[in-house]
Amino acid sequence: MTTLSLDRRPAQTARLRQRTVGRTVLYVVMIAAAVAIMIPFVWMVVSSLKTNNQVFTIPIQWIPDPVVWQNYVDIWAKSDMVTWVKNTLLLSVGVTFLQVLTGSFAAYGFAKMRFPGRDVLFLAYVGTIAVPWQAYMIPQFILLSKAGLSNTLWAMLALQTFSAFGVFLMKQYYESIPDELSEAARIDGLSEYGIWRRIVLPLSGPAVATLVLLTFVNTWNDYLGPLIYLRDRDIWTIQIGLQSFVSQYNAEYALIMTGSVLSVVPIALIFLLGQRFFVQGIATAGMKG
Amino acid sequence: MVTTAVPPTGSTSSRTGRNRPGGHPPGRRLRLRNTFIGWTFILPNFIGFAVLTLGPVLALFYLGFTSWNAFGQAEWVGVENFRGLLTDATFHRALLNTGYYAVLHIPLTLAASLGLALLLNTKLRGVAFFRTVAFFPYITSIVAIAVVWNMLFSPDAGVINQFLTFLGVDDPPGWTTSTDWSMPAVVIVGTWRYMGYYMLLFLAGLQAIPPELYEAARVDGANAIQRFWNVTVPGLRPTTFFITVMLTIESFKVFDLILVMTNGGPGISTLVLSQYIYRKGFEEHDFGYASSVAIVLFGICIVVTVVQFLINKRRER
Questions:
Q1: Alpha-carbon distance B59 to B288, whole Å?
Q2: Residue B231 is assigned to a structural domain of this protein
Q3: In this structure, are residues B119 and A26 in contact, taking their beta carbons and an 8 Å threshold?
Q4: Which of A165, A166, A158, A161 is closest to A228 using CA atoms?
Q5: Is A114 a domain residue?
Q6: CB atoms within 10 A of CB B219
Q7: Using CA atoms, how far apart are residues A110 and A121, in angstroms rounded to an integer?
Q8: pTM
Q9: Residue B55 and residue B115 in one domain
Q10: Residues spanned by the domain of B158
Q11: Per-residue pLDDT tens for A10-56?
């Protein structure tokens, strides 16, 4: 700015003003879009703090009056929310742990080792990408039922642990780690397992974080798996519990919204804490799929 | 557990320990050992994957040709199930509804996610926040989302129809209570849910376009619209292709959203293929027939992927 000559100044300020206007317009558009996208969530939270009669009013009441915190007390008594959350947490943690362990282990084999049969195995993973789960859920169900796992949390664990996605994501990342590192470790006498544990795995923090978050969220949100496999109330997960709660108390709008808020809050927190990894994961794994 | 022996002294080419003392054919034992170790890495995941995914996919092609309810035994009936599909009006309706969903959902989501990506592909302060907002619907659970949207779509006192009335629409649609409007309602929710995800993919694509191209176009006097059509659109082609494939498959397998929002209703106006498989298989326990429907779904997804792949290959030439 200090080197400007006098005669260029008007053009400069005009351009500056144009840019300010452009920016303002952009911000307005962004804010409008953000509000439009978030309205369902706002409405959800607002309604969860109302009484039933106030949920559907004309015109809409955007600020609850009075604020009914009682819903957040009642829901625990009226539903088995504690059991659902406990089951879902157990499942999410278990699936995430196994998925990361076996996924990154397999990815090491695919990315860092060379042996006959490797590419055929990988092709098997690739070949099933375009096949939707809905197409083979019936044979899978028959299989797990025959194994006596239907109506147990083990079925859900088996179902969600061995996804091709985890292998892809980790393989993608491992390939970006220079081979010289593992080569050097090999010369130093480290076994392949040692290289995986001491060198490659510690270097793949971001990929592991991404896989942990995505798997956790997916397991937490899964509705179809529990719907098909979990019959007993005491092994229900939060999604299926919430759905049954909705049909049981279908007129208790405020309470239903309270349950919905509670099912979304943990995911929202995880997402806000780790959104960097979500974005990275989708940008890298998504493109290669 | 040490895979590589300490390099024997005096050997010149012992970088990876390939030359072993002792007269064995060099490399052979090591290769065997390497293969063994490689398999141990892959097997823990692969066994699970093979048993729970590959196996069922293969079994599907047997089950589809059998007659089997949950209690008896699977009995080979040849193409009987598929002959049944030809005259099954409900199946036709499900197929049609799935196509209808895809036709609405694919272009709408493409446009919305590209629009968002273009809007948010700036370095303005706070843009990360807006990206987070756009992505948020994608990671929230389908049940909560469906329940909220059902209430928003409520014909009399719902937020959406109040807004439409405010805009001057005299006779706002009945949404999920109307056979004509239930599918558009589901599509709106589907688009809202997935656009943030595809926006991220588009953003990655946009950032891969070299800025020099824009600079060159600007120097040549191209305005913003010309730059969009001549730089952005060609530059995004691989991304757009990939997203279209993903969107198509996602549309054809749409399930949980519909299950929770409308349960296929009113009537069968939003019944889709996946749900028909579910109904036949898990509600009527007709595993054989349900599997034949699943084979159709499988076929559609594979054909769509292959066709779009071929088209893209030809266009690249």
A1: 11
A2: yes
A3: yes
A4: A158
A5: yes
A6: 8
A7: 9
A8: 0.84
A9: no
A10: 81-316
A11: 667 777 787 788 888 888 988 888 888 988 888 888 888 888 777 77
CA gap B300, B91 in Å, rounded: 14
Is A33 an interface residue toward B (CB < 8 Å)? Answer: yes
- H or E segment and range at residue B66: strand B66-67
ipTM of the complex: 0.82
Nearest to A135 among B17, B60, B130 (CB): B60
- A46 and A106 in a common domain: no
Domain count of the fold of chain B: 2
Q: Evaluate the CA torsion angle A131, A132, A134, A139 in order and state its sign.
A: positive
| Contact assignment for A106 to B141 by CB distance below 8 Å | no
Return the CATH number at A89: 1.10.3720.10
Return mean pLDDT, chain B. 82
For residue A110, being part of any structural domain is answered with yes
Q: Between A and B, how many residue pairs show a Cβ–Cβ distance under 8 A?
A: 300
DSSP category for residue B284: S
A264: tokens are 């979304």
Q: Are B35 and A115 in contact (CB under 8 A)?
A: yes
Domains in chain A, number: 2
**B159-214 tens-digit pLDDT:** 888 888 888 787 888 888 888 888 999 999 999 999 988 998 898 888 888 888 88
Indicate yes or no: CB of A138 within 8 angstroms of CB of B144: no
Structural domain including A213 reads: 72-288
**What torsion, rounded to 10 degrees, do the Cα atoms A100, A105, A107, A112 define?**
150
